[in-house]
Amino acid sequence: MDLKCEILNMRGKEVTIRINDCVKMNSKIYDKTGKTIGKITRIFGPVSSAYGLVSVFPASGEVKELYVKCTGDANGRGKAREEENR
């Protein structure tokens, strides 16, 4: 599932975004065409409404919209974890 990220701050090649529970460290970040343009290098703030620091790759150009692919459900549970609990 692709989720559009809310951009809060941009400084050089670092972008601060609001994230949800299903986003993990080193998750890839995509532009609107699906091209990988960066990755999450830091997660901070309260768990209920966390923030992520994205390092944008140098060749990405100007960043206007960011998307992340959610690997689990909204509670951060991925397929592997659900199978493990069976």
Note down, in words, how this protein is organized:
The chain is mostly beta strands and 86 residues long. It has a single domain, classed as Thrombin, subunit H, CATH 2.40.10.230. A 6-stranded antiparallel beta barrel has the order 1-2-5-4-3-6. It is globular and about 30 Å long.
- Known CATH architecture: Beta Barrel
Describe the sheet with the most strands.
Answer: 6 strands, antiparallel, barrel
Domain count, please report it: 1
- Ends distance: 24 Å
Integer average pLDDT: 81
Helix content: under 10%
Count of helical stretches: 1
> Which class in CATH terms?
Mainly Beta
CATH topology: Thrombin, subunit H
Q: What structural category arises from helix and sheet content?
A: mainly beta
Along the chain, the helix and strand elements come as EEEEEEH
Shape: globular
Q: Give the tally of β-strands.
A: 6
The main sheet orders its strands as 1-2-5-4-3-6
Looking at CATH, the homologous superfamily is Probable tRNA pseudouridine synthase domain
How much of the residues is beta strand, in percent?
35-45%
- Unreliable spans: 79-86
Radius of gyration: 13 Å
Keywords:
86 residues, mainly beta, Thrombin, subunit H, 6-stranded antiparallel barrel, 6 strands, globular, disordered C terminus
